[in-house]
User: Fold this.
Amino acid sequence: MLKRTFLAGAIMSLGLAVGAVAAEYPTQSITIIVPSKAGGSTDRTARMFTEIAEKNYDGFEFVINNIPGSGGQKGFEAIARAKPDGYTIGLVFTPQLVAHIVSGRAGYTLDSFHVMGNTAQDPAIVVVPKDSAIMNMQDLADAAKADALTVAVNGIGSDDFLAAKSFESKAGVEFNLLPTKGSTEQKAAILGGHVDAAFMNLSQMIKQHAAGDARIIALLTEERDSHLPDMPTAQEQGFDVFMRATRGFVAPAGIDPAIQEQLDTMLAEVMASDEFKDNAMTGSIFLLPMSGPEYLAYLEGLQAETQAVYDQAPW
Amino acid sequence: MFEYLAIVFSLSSLLTIAIGTVAGVAIGGMPGLTATMAVGLLVPFTYTMDPTAGLMLLGGIYCGAMYGGSIPAILLNTPGTPAAVATAIEGYPMSQQGRAGLALKVSVTASYVGGTFSTLILLLFAPLLARQALAFGPAETFLLALMGLAGIISIADENSSLIKALIAGLLGMIIAVIGTDDMSGSLRYTMGMIELIDGIDFMPALIGLFSMIQMLELAGMRQKSIDTSALDKTQKSEPMPRGIAKHIALGSGTGTVIGILPGEGATIAAFISYNFSKRISKMKELFGKGNPEGIAAAEAGNNGCVGGSLVPTLTLGIPGNSVAAALMGAFIIHGMIPGPDLFTEYANRTYPFILSLFVANGVFLIVGLTFAPYLARIALIPPAIMVPVVSAFAVLGSYALNNAVFDVYLMIGFALFGLILKKLGYSLEALILGLILGPIAEGGFTQGMIIGKGSPWIFFESNIAKVMWVIIALLLVPPLISYLKMVRQNAAGVRSS
Assistant:
């Protein structure tokens, strides 16, 4: 194998056909860095992809390397640092990816990556305890004006936190923010009625909402969601607050364009397959396919927005 | 219900459960391998399995690992999981006295009873109890952590070095301060190192403080083998001590209740059960010197958490601890979102899963009782073989936690630092308790203060909180009185002499 790599290198250095390298690719398994624990939703997104990609593409084998920690930062940095030889790609999730850049903690920038495309999303929601008097976003704003409401968000700098901050400035209110360690604590706080409201993600509360254990009052996306078609967005209710978590694929910047093209196409094709869509449905993963350029534009926009929030209230 | 039993008692199911349980025992027994890690890693593999079989496998691992942690704790003083630290306090002295066989027997029996009791509660009362558990908020979490920290006192008055145990506990809590402050997002004492952003993981600490130090001490022993009289005694089977049932029952109840509370773990359950058991014991003076009652309570307590932790996980989607959280991932990939649906739409998978936990408990009981006499001999392996093997596992285990070499250095650092503390008479059990419970107490306290909008009254408001304060007082006041008495006697003794 070493010999073959050497040969490939020699051909390339001679400036012969770049296509020859791509034809040789892949000669070994491709590592996918997942910046979260095994079994979580990002991990499951990666494994759904590898299952179908390995089946449909001869010669492609994937190894998943979970590098959890620091809100994804360890994993993001590992992808950025990886050798751009086409044998390491990874998943990223927002808004943490850009939040780390904005807060000055990240050892990478968006330029460290080649953005391959987005796969999944999870809309942000506002949820209240089941016997709360708050029925909609206007009630929430009114109640918050009358008395500081205790609102649970999943840690400082998370998507929930950013959404809550955005709502505060749009509605001209100030919450008594309760940061939690993970959505589990948020769920317990809402179900137990320990807080007045929480900013969370749809997948975390959709079943509890359906069972009547909690009440979702708004989606924080531009349009309604097919999983909960009757739920109005915050925008419909007069508050322009937008937030969603996204999970997409990236590669370290600087991979041979021919190889990168192959990987990008594979991702797009896998995401378009019916089998992938079916598996996502069973696994409660909400798909939002975006091409590389689309997702890059999204990330850049998000970084600018996050920067604005950070400048007002740094964490 | 019969159709569910038929699913569980089919040959393939039984085999799956048995494999999971035995693997779980092995995982729990090895330093650094935890049930959370095992379940987390296997969840993706159950993706392609039949959902029911996959869940049974994971359930078996969970049950087995909870018990498995106690085996090396008793034999080698190297607890495989933090929940087994209390077991080591009593179990290792028993091993040294050649009573390892009995200690193992008590531990497996207590684990079985605790596990089975909590599964029964899960099967019968899950939805009802989950609602009750929701009343338990951050303020009560803080008080529960205080109850756990009261265990430092009970570790202490063995060697009567109360001050040193308290200092060690405090040291643990100070180490736990390192990392991101969850309440403000600011970094505390991370010195610009990305490895420290998540704080100090307690697993490298546990491995360093117990497994590694034990090996260093073994290696440093003048005498190259343990005296063989211990071997003869090990071969003799001792009957179960009288009155042990009370302690097992206490541990089972405590463990189940603490397991049900959202976000609380087996470590607290084991220490609180151990502490309770010491308070009601008629042989208090034997605690710390090899009292099987302590093992019974601690092991029933941590296994009681298994069924307990699944109560809020299955009914509300709020995992009771990190293993339950990983297990929840397995439910979700098969489209079984926790909630009422699990008991209606997916009843044909959920009930067999719960029933399989009874089988898993039975499997480790049989394995544990059968192999206890053989396992007991592990303690007699000469240090020349034991030290390199366990040390290698300690290094591998630390690395495997997060695939990080940093954790290996951390583990070695803790071993060296801990060795000095131990030689100076500071309790390492108190240190690890502070390290694990400090952040839980801190989180509960700050969240409680936020919810109370700055008023500490919230910690006294609910009825649960009031009851908990009474229990904390009961745990703290009697040892304090006896300590003061002892100090006064000593003072009087010094004066008269």
